[in-house]
Amino acid sequence: MGSGKSTVAREVAHRLGVPCLDLDAEIERRAGVDIPTLFEREGERAFRALEVETLRLLLGDVEDAVVALGGGTVANVESRHALLRAGTLVTLDADLAELVRRVAGEGGRPLLQGVDPERRLRELLSSRADAYAECHGRVPSGARDPRAIAEDVVALARRELIAVPLGRRTYRVEVGSGVRHGSGAHAAAMCDGDKLLLVSDRNVAPHWANSLRGALEAEGRKVVEVVLPPGEEHKSIETVNLIWERALDGGMDRGCGVVSLGGGVVGDLAGFAASTLLRGIPVGHLPTTVLSMADSAIGGKTGFDTRHGKNLVGTFHQPSFVTCDVEVLGTLPERDRISGLAEIAKSAWLAGESEVAAIEDDAAALRRGEPEALIRAVRMSATLKARIVTEDERESGTRALLNLGHTVGHALEAAEGYAGLRHGEAVALGMVAAFKLAVKLGSARTDDQQRARALLSSLGLPVDVEGRLDAATLAYIAADKKRRGGQVTFVIPGAPGEVELRPLPLEQVGDLLRM
Ligand SMILES: NC(=O)c1ccc[n+]([C@@H]2O[C@H](COP(=O)([O-])OP(=O)(O)OC[C@H]3O[C@@H](n4cnc5c(N)ncnc54)[C@H](O)[C@@H]3O)[C@@H](O)[C@H]2O)c1
């Protein structure tokens, strides 16, 4: 209220050449009376119900438009998340004194009737702070020229960010070519201490660490750097200790933050170290593999392997930003790039028919590593991951669906001592095994099974799992941390978008997989 959203919305629409709509005006049109009258006659509850319904219809009807929303619209979680999915949601920020100045003397504000405006505005801002934080970006409004504000909004919209809405811990995933150049500013925004710890590995650092260090230093921060030994075999407590020691030797304090530059291994280790250093400091990720862009950098799972299996020790620690620059994939060995496409295929199958069809269409381009196809695929996968993490941050339900292909995949990796198969290759084989189970259990049709196998194969991934399902692999499945009382929870796929969690007795799994 008083943030200037109607004026700014018109400016933004003018710049983008699209219509400008005002949700309040749409509500008045549907109700046939103005909002103060509606409030007076039917109360705030009835108004809110009409607001939710009007927005729902609008989002179904309108293609490209700028919509000015009432400040209470986004207080409704379903509306807010629908808005985040439908386009770019921007919060205009003005300080309290400016808002009070603007609404002073104005009539027709039902929420300010008969109350002290300053007190009421303070209450509204405080009670809606979490909701207002769940947006693609915040733009300072205040006393600025609306044209300058509109410029900022347009620039934000063009970045096509993916938001992971978690109240005040909300963060954004940016996917594109060259977007790493903005990461200095994102890192500086996540903490105000004088140092940042840059964590990478020996394969990544020679190509990409210098320019990132420069970007961080350009923000006035000292950079403490640690370059880890690469690969899953080093995803251990010893490597975590290298990070802890370097950070503490470098004089990091609680105001400092960690920036990871690397694949899933570096991200998981840096995230774990950040979550435990000084009882938790912020982390931002610049993933450098397809897998880490599509999956592991988003969602806050951190950890390392022990001799008992993968990722058995870890934490949940959401990042402050995730920047996926497909240009850095240019130095990734082809085998690793293709391996990461397994998580993309997995995400597409979880998301639904149109996502699977899009990856089928792009398969050849993805296999060749074409940037535009990679951007589309990473965005699809990151969007799905963001949605699932929002629904189930701590994996007490739907988030476990992301483990499609992982139960057998992890066992295959472990059986080879984490040195033979790449993680993604193991996931591809695990997906083939999951479809085998699904067909035998009657959840998937053989058409689905063949389609999934063809998709993985067209991406250049291994699909011949049969010879690998031996006693050693089954022993590792038995040790899977998801095992409960002799049962293994499997993600059982069906048609695209139809995937379920099913606990299965271990013996049955063995029998079905061997058959
Ligand atoms: N946290 C999660 O939610 C989550 C989800 C899925 C997977 N994971 C984890 O991710 C890990 C696998 O990640 P990954 O596939 O990215 O493997 P990785 O991190 O081991 O990277 C693969 C190899 O590529 C090198 N590399 C990375 N980026 C490069 C670049 N741009 N140029 C040159 N070389 C580069 C690495 O040094 C490494 O040798 C596993 O440990 C898995 O458990 C975590």
Bound molecules: nicotinamide-adenine-dinucleotide
Q: What is the count of DSSP helices, taking H or I runs of 4+ residues?
A: 21
Q: What is the overall shape?
A: globular
The average pLDDT value, as a whole number, equals: 93
Largest sheet: 7 strands, mixed
> Which regions have little confidence, pLDDT < 50, spanning 5+ residues?
none
> Count the strands?
15
Helix content range: 40-55%
Helix-strand category: alpha/beta
Distance N to C terminus: 65 Å
Strand content: 5-15%
Strand order of the largest sheet: 5-6-13-10-9-7-8
What is the CA-atom radius of gyration, in angstroms?
25 Å
Description:
The chain is α/β, with parallel strands linked by helices and 515 residues long. It has 21 helices and 15 strands. It is globular, with a radius of gyration of 25 Å. Helix 5 (96-103) packs across helix 6 (117-127) and helix 11 crosses helix 12. Nicotinamide-adenine-dinucleotide binds at residues 201, 203-204, 207, 230-232, 235, 262-266, 268, 288-289, 291-292, 295-296, 299, 301, 310-311, 328-329, 331-332, 336, 340, 423-424.
Summarize the structure in short.
This protein is of the alpha/beta class and 515 residues long. It contains 21 helices and 15 strands.
